[in-house]
Amino acid sequence: MKNLKFILALFLIAYFPFSGYMQQTSGGAEVIKPPKYPNGVYTKENSQSRRPIPYTSLREADVMWSKRVWRVINLKEKINHPLYYPTQPIADRKSLFEVLKDGALKSGVISCFNSTDDEFRIEFTKSEVENLLVQWDSSATTEDPNNPGQFISAPVKNEINSEKISKYWMKEDWFYDKQRSVLDVRIIGLLVVIPKVSETGEDQGADKPLFWVYFPEIRPILANQEVYMRHNDAERRTLEDIFWKRMFSSYVIKESNVYDRYISEYTSGINALFEAERVKEDIFKFEHDLWHF
After folding, report:
1. Can you give the pTM of this predicted structure?
2. Which residues pair with residue 84 across a beta bridge?
3. Contact 113, 213 (CB under 8 A)
4. N or C end of the chain, less CB within 10 A?
């Protein structure tokens, strides 16, 4: 029965590619509009049927060393653009934020957690996530219908979209598996971050965390989402490939420590950069010193 369902799914994908996509109407509502013609000279099946590479079985007894690290992925860096673009969903691609938002609000397969809880204990409801993804502009005004010529405050509701996402925070564990004799890393969670703005819409020069997602939960979804490859459109990779192959740039903002504090809490400026590099260098040296040449 499972094989029959799988074959039927492949048949539908092959003969009905891109059955529809979300289009923004003038009224702000999203409707599904099927394409009139196939979007390409062949049917893309690889990414739509992809599954994430399963993690290797790991026992506590095999982990002889581990280090927890928090990083920041800045979407303004060119190498991180596949996670940021397209800012508006197109037929075969979405940004990482759009994938997370659709998974949390539409399909309900992604759980979102409080931005202050990177241990995934305080889960948001669907309505709470919807409220998080809204910004109010209190500086907007409109003419008072009862007093022509006079203007009154009329806050405008703005939905947060991909264009407003500036960074992702990433929580990951580095560990040495003595059973395989390798230093490995696994991502634990992602935190969505936007610039913090005032009620009048002015950038305050700080970050505003939105919500955490548990990374192993979203891997099957990321494995079915293509990203742009600048050298070859036929060799499209997926969002899962970006993280699995570490095809992104990031910098360290925290390592596990007795005080549970961030680097910015005990140093700043150029010294903070040196401290971040020191954390990465310590991990590199640990692996290097395991072997004798």
Report:
1. 0.81
2. none
3. yes
4. C
